[in-house]
Amino acid sequence: MVVGSGLLAQALDCFAIRNDVLIFAAGVSDSVACTPADCSRELRRLSGYRNIESKLVYFSSCSVTDPEHAQSPYVLHKQAQEAFIHENFKHFLIIRLPTVVGSGGNERNLFNFFYQQLNQNRALTVRKEAERYLFDVSDLVTVVRRLLDFSNDRDVIDACWDNRVNILQIVEYMRRALHSDSSIQVIDGGSFPIVDNQRFIDAMGGELTEGKSAISILDKYIALRGNHEKSGE
């Protein structure tokens, strides 16, 4: 069973016919504009599945370990959701995802926002110490299947590759790829999630960790988005 209709839910629609797993992909998707109403809505929806015997798969965020965002409404909400799951679900797998890149999804997520701003030659401000891990949404089915087999009955796993990259590097690379004239203002500050991804890497195996660099992910979705725009989709 899959709950949700956004980017993650669409990527995992193959789980819809499974009765042993509940994929909850209906969480707050906007880490910038996370309102109390959004948080309450997600909690109410999640609460409705408290008594299930199926294993819950919930998507949290690697941002819960980012010191700069420790007190942000989004991170506090994700932490509260994780605690709620520990207290109310018998069987669960909490997968903490980094920055997810894909075709579609919230226009305010990192890739979509940068693409839109740069493609329209708008100015951007970047914190020089900010870094992120990138995750290709097309890997999600394989990742979830592997982690369901690998994880404990009640588990939390940081699911990110070893591809941490500076935000300024992302912006500069995308600006060149898009031939953008956007001006970039660099200011002090920034941080990155402090992840422990060894169990994730072990679960995925060496053959599945190749080709996951931040640049390869950016190349893929810059090209895909450009093709969609050319075709008018």
What Rg do the Cα atoms give? 18 Å
Total DSSP E strands: 11
**Given this structure, which CATH class is correct?**
Alpha Beta
CATH architecture label name:
3-Layer(aba) Sandwich
What would the keywords be for this entry?
5-stranded parallel beta sheet; two-stranded parallel sheet; about 40% helix; alpha/beta; about 230 residues; Rossmann fold
Question: Can you walk through the features of this model?
Answer:
The protein is of the alpha/beta class and 233 residues long. It has one domain: NAD(P)-binding Rossmann-like Domain (Rossmann fold), CATH 3.40.50. The protein is 39% helix and 18% strand. The protein is built from eight helices and eleven strands. It has helices at 7-11, 36-47, 73-88, 110-119, 140-150, 167-177, 198-204, 214-231, and strands at residues 2-3, 21-24, 55-61, 92-97, 99-101, 124-127, 131-132, 134-136, 154-158, 165-166, 184-187. The chain is globular and about 55 Å long. The model has no long low-confidence stretch (mean pLDDT 91).
